[in-house]
Amino acid sequence: MPASRRTDPALQAIEDELLALEPTAHRPAHGTPRQTLEGLIAPAFWEVAASGLRYGRERFVEILLECASRPHDERWVPIDVCCQQIATDTFLLSYSLWQGTRLSHRASLWRRGTAGWQTVYHQGTVVLPVATPA
Questions:
Q1: What pLDDT is stored for residue 117 in this prediction?
Q2: How far apart are the C-alpha atoms of 33 and 21, rounded to whole Å?
């Protein structure tokens, strides 16, 4: 990631807060209730998944509940994290994510309202291994 994409030090606390919310909003812990997920996901939310499929809020919540119904065994390791303020109370959190042996680039748009943070958009793009010339 270019040096210009580093988080402004004034936004570091927001980056930390949003990065802590990312797993809950996109890979909930075992047993996370629907109410918690719905509180973090804006009504107009949509996602372009790493698979290329698009999901609206309701289908996304259903997928998250399926994930939350079983324990996870792979670690998530975010790298190259960057938080940018897009508008008043709206922030873009971008990062690369190692999930086991899979690398993807992620971007989430978060909005802070009176009820707290909600994600309004998320995209994940799988990074394919680069073939070396023969």
A1: 96
A2: 15
For residue 53, give the amino acid letter: L
Contact 58, 132 (CB under 8 A): no
Q: How far apart are the first and last CA of the chain?
A: 28
Helix/strand/coil (H, E, C) string of the chain? CCHHHCCCHHHHHHHHHHHHHHHHHHCCCCCCCHHHHHHHEEEEEEEECCCCCEEEHHHHHHHHHHHHCCCCCCCEEEEEEEEEEEECCEEEEEEEEEECCEEEEEEEEEEEECCEEEEEEEEEEECCCCCCCC
User: Alpha-carbon distance 114 to 102, whole Å?
Assistant: 36
CATH code of residue 105:
3.10.450.50
CA distance linking residue 27 with residue 18, whole number of Å: 14
The pTM of the full predicted model, rounded to 2 decimals, is 0.83
Domain count, the chain: 1
